[in-house]
């Protein structure tokens, strides 16, 4: 399938979701690597990405109460914003991160998370500024470089975005989240074969998580290999997580009937 044809039939909502997913990967784990105190965050019995809507709502209520008690606590605020974002409440997540950034104006981890929230709300210029202010040229952070790349991709500058990803890989070779972001950059340009190559490499790396696998499954599905895509989405997971991943894949590919259009296109190309 040609890149031009792919971009014609892919709905804009799907393209946006692809890039926001890449941004989420690039900042995954930032808070855990900082020097923030996390003892005040209510514990959760499963990762956010494997929670259903009801579980995300309960988590938001629980962490929201902790946030109300101390809105200056950066770790609680960032966790609360992450839960809100996962639950589709990006505007509220941004409002939370604005407050956290006001109270912690020099914290690089906070600025990075604030940039993520701004990007999730579609404020890409401000997001890029926040990420760049969090960066230090003498000791650049690979996660921030990768996040900057994801924002640049969303702003329609893939050449600059890939430059950031490659700088990030120079610092952290074979990091699966960077490889995944690089792969998704090629998805946005309709180059699915190159995208699959990077994502397949990302999945093989130690530390690759479910979200990297979901991105590979999406790219394989976009090429019409639907059974293989579902196998990838459900591999090496608990039954509950596998079901959630396959549901995610189907939802992404069914937006505005994209799955059916891709199937029809694939069948037409074989005639």
UniProtKB/TrEMBL annotation:
<keyword id="KW-0802">TPR repeat</keyword>
<dbReference type="InterPro" id="IPR019734">
    <property type="entry name" value="TPR_rpt"/>
</dbReference>
<feature type="signal peptide">
    <location>
        <begin position="1"/>
        <end position="21"/>
    </location>
</feature>
<dbReference type="InterPro" id="IPR011990">
    <property type="entry name" value="TPR-like_helical_dom_sf"/>
</dbReference>
<keyword id="KW-0732">Signal</keyword>
<feature type="repeat" description="TPR">
    <location>
        <begin position="142"/>
        <end position="175"/>
    </location>
</feature>
<dbReference type="Pfam" id="PF14559">
    <property type="entry name" value="TPR_19"/>
</dbReference>
<dbReference type="InterPro" id="IPR014596">
    <property type="entry name" value="UCP035836"/>
</dbReference>
<protein>
    <submittedName>
        <fullName>Flp pilus assembly protein TadD</fullName>
    </submittedName>
</protein>
